[in-house]
Amino acid sequence: MTTTIATRLRVYHDADGSTPIRELSEGDAIAGELARIGVRFERWAADVELVPGASQDDVIGAYASQIAALKSECGYTTVDVIRLERGTPNTEPIRQKFLNEHAHSEDEVRFFVEGRGAFYLHANGHVYQVVCVRNDLISVPAGTKHWFDMGPDPEFTAIRLFTDEAGWVANFTGDTISERFPKLDQ
Ligand SMILES: [Fe+2]
Fold this sequence. Notes:
It is built from four helices and eleven strands. The chain is an alpha+beta fold and 186 residues long. The chain has a single domain, classed as Jelly Rolls (Sandwich). Strands 1, 2, 3, 4, 6, 7, 8, 9 and 10 form a nine-stranded antiparallel β-sheet that branches.
């Protein structure tokens, strides 16, 4: 993993993706801002170096203690892993799918253990762009409109936690709002 950047939150009015009205980089401040829209943001220790080619089971095994703690604390029943190593071919269709605004009937919970990706949360007349990096845990509540950008050259590993995996169907809103906001690398 070569990308080392920090977590960042930019808040925009939802009608104007050109200029953020607030920008935060400190973890507690980001958590406080996101709590206002019901989004949980925490830092958990992602302290294991994963080898190239690590499987889903390898990742789950490496983070067994954190996963057990999250399950008992929050009632999650199942986990899986999404891992895109740098240079993975044909990622653009996956990227495009989640660039469209959608919501789920289940909380969307991601623990980033490598790399980075940007969540965009559309709530209360604002868009909150949260660039999540290693150690960041984010929980987007059921029903919150959002989209996600993994960037043109994705590199991230996220553990996904579910209370009901069947609820993680994307219900697309049909709104093209995401086209008016900066992408991960802009
Ligand atoms: Fe989603």
